[in-house]
Design a protein that fits this description.
about 190 residues, alpha+beta, single chain
Length: about 190
């Protein structure tokens, strides 16, 4: 039993280590305003066939299929003859303004570097998105969360089975708890 627990503990720790390190590093960057994400902005004009002012969702799908815009459709607003929408993913955001009188759309694309993309994963969640990569990230978060629960449970059980290591385990648990509480307090005071 102990050997199985130890192997499960090791596998869960190794599986979740990379995602936790990336998540933790970008959380520190966001919490303390450290320099990091850079972005670039480009604007293009696209000629649009008539008929899309009636259905903004069909217009967004046309943009995705014909012009390679990828992501989730969010923030759709219609103001008279102008339709504004955003197609968003962790690495880029496309703000689209379509004027049916001119039959053209102005697309402003904000592209993020790798750190900016990792930073945006804090804002992506769930598994029911239109863009497959965000769904994949949601499944990875779910599996990592289960792995962390398994890591904690197997660690506690192994700690109680090995009497000699209880002092070291208590020290590691105390330092971890102290570090976590300190970070939470510092983030709230910042």
């Amino acid at each position: 039993m102990y050997r199985w627990l130890r192997n499960a503990h090791l596998a869960a720790g190794l599986f979740s280590a990379v995602s936790l390190l990336v998540f933790g590093a970008t959380a520190l960057q966001m919490a303390y305003g450290l320099p990091g994400p850079n972005s670039s902005e480009t604007t293009t004009t696209i000629d649009v066939p008539s008929g899309y002012q009636v259905n903004p969702r069909a217009f967004a799908w046309w943009l995705m299929e014909r012009h390679g815009l990828r992501g989730d459709l969010v923030n759709v607003t219609t103001k008279g003859a102008v339709v504004e929408l955003t197609i968003q993913r962790t690495g880029a955001s496309h703000r689209v303004e379509y004027d049916s009188h001119r039959n053209s759309a102005q697309v402003t694309t904000i592209s993020r570097n790798t750190l900016g993309m990792f930073n945006r994963i804090h804002h992506a969640g769930g598994i029911e998105h239109q863009y497959w990569a965000i769904n994949l990230w949601g499944w990875m978060l779910l599996v990592s969360s289960i792995a962390l629960l398994l890591l904690a449970a197997s660690g506690v059980v192994m700690w109680f089975k090995r009497y000699d290591d209880r002092r070291l385990g208590a020290l590691v648990a105390s330092v971890g708890l102290g570090w976590g509480v300190t970070l939470l307090v510092l983030m709230r005071l910042h």
